[in-house]
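Private note to self, pasted from the team thread so I don't lose it. Backbone tokens:
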């Protein structure tokens, strides 16, 4: 069925087309710029031997061309066959589109090939048991009760009318607006394929074909630069945070104050050692930005006693390290030494740093024995250190401070000019 266009939305569409920074990604002839795809782990696809991967994509392409086509400025799917995905992989993006679902329809948008921002007809009573009555835009494949799974409001227009969808993704953090109403607020998109690890750092955008005819138009994407991504991350959940660094001096800090210098509003290690915030902490969260040189190495002291080797005498050292350390230095490291790891005890997930020379945003939360590290919007570590098997730690090294519940936060320099700025602290009070 061909649905009529709505004049008011045509005006909105023309305004969208004029917005700077956006690229039109409507497929060309024969779906140029896109390929066939499926609900298939992108990491697994990329890990396949090239001939096997090519054969799988070729099969998807053949089926996609039978069920997807472009008519003028619109993309149509019969609702059958595979999904389609961009040839290009995207990291942090703003993705805007309009869709028209058919009555009782069901579809979605995958981010980094991970399902999904849900699209469906909320009047389809057969799907109310799955939440269709709550409306579209939610991260439907998140765990029950998880933030973002259900939309905050029902903002759908009826089936047969155009709906405008805006998605902003930074790391695994996703915000969604449907018809100018926020329906998902900075929620983490869980990894449908393996919930024990975070979603990939980049991947294709994907449109789902899920049994019902759907039309799409004004497919536009804008890649979000790192500075803007950091501002987005910093703007969320600010309650309770306060600055602990003036940007001009080291007032409020102690330790090797001569081993660090202030440059352009940042604390920079200048062949320094350990620098601590002059405040004993129990449970807390710290937000900061850091910048690494090639091969750069530093660390965050977590509940350090302020003396001795903080990596062992404190709760831990949360590693700060170039993600490409081996390539940069030629030195091999243990997985429990990579960035964000509880040094020598628990390995963080790797591959979420920004390129060398760019600022990274990181939030570290310490509650009881649990250390959680979120890097550039993606959780890379969430570990209960009280459960670490000390017979299997790196080099069998004792960690006498592992179970400390108070101590100092700080930087553990190794002589490299690693920089830190915009340092904010939130002390977490015990639950009553």
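Design output:
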């Amino acid at each position: 069925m061909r649905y009529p266009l709505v004049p008011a939305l045509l005006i909105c569409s023309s305004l969208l087309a004029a917005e700077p920074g956006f690229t039109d990604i409507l497929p060309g002839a024969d779906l140029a710029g896109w390929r066939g795809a499926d609900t298939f782990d992108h990491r697994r696809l990329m890990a396949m031997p090239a001939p096997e991967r090519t054969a799988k994509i070729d099969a998807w392409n053949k089926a996609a061309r039978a069920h997807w086509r472009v008519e003028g400025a619109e993309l149509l799917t019969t609702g059958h066959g595979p999904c389609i995905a961009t040839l290009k992989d995207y990291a942090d993006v703003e993705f805007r589109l309009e869709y028209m679902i058919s009555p009782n329809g069901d579809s979605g948008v995958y981010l980094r090939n991970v399902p999904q921002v849900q699209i469906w007809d909320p009047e389809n009573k057969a799907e109310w048991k799955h939440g269709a009555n709550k409306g579209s835009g939610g991260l439907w494949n998140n765990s029950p009760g998880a933030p973002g799974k259900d939309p905050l409001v029902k903002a759908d227009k009826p089936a047969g009318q155009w709906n405008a969808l805006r998605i902003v993704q930074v790391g695994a953090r996703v915000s969604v607006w449907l018809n100018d109403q926020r329906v998902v607020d900075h929620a983490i998109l869980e990894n449908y394929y393996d919930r024990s690890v975070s979603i990939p750092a980049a991947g294709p955008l994907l449109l789902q074909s899920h049994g019902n005819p759907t039309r799409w138009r004004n497919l536009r994407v804008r890649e979000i630069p790192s500075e803007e991504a950091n501002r987005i991350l910093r703007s969320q959940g600010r309650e309770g945070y306060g600055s602990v660094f003036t940007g001009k001096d080291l007032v409020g800090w102690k330790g090797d104050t001569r081993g660090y210098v202030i440059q352009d509003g940042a604390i920079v290690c200048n062949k320094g050692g350990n620098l601590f915030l002059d405040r004993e902490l129990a449970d807390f969260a710290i937000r900061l930005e850091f910048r690494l040189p090639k091969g750069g190495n530093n660390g965050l002291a977590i509940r350090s006693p302020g003396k001795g080797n903080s990596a062992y005498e404190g709760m831990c050292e949360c590693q700060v390290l170039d993600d490409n350390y081996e390539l940069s230095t030629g030195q091999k490291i243990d997985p429990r030494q990579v960035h964000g790891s509880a040094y020598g005890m628990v390995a963080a997930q790797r591959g979420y740093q920004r390129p060398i020379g760019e600022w990274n945003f990181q939030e570290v939360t310490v509650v009881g024995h649990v250390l959680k590290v979120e890097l550039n919007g993606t959780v890379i570590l969430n570990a209960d250190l009280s459960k670490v098997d000390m017979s299997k730690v790196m080099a069998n090294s004792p960690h006498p401070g592992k179970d400390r519940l108070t101590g100092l936060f700080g930087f553990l320099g190794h002589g490299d000019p690693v920089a830190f700025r915009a340092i904010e602290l939130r002390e977490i009070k015990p639950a009553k």
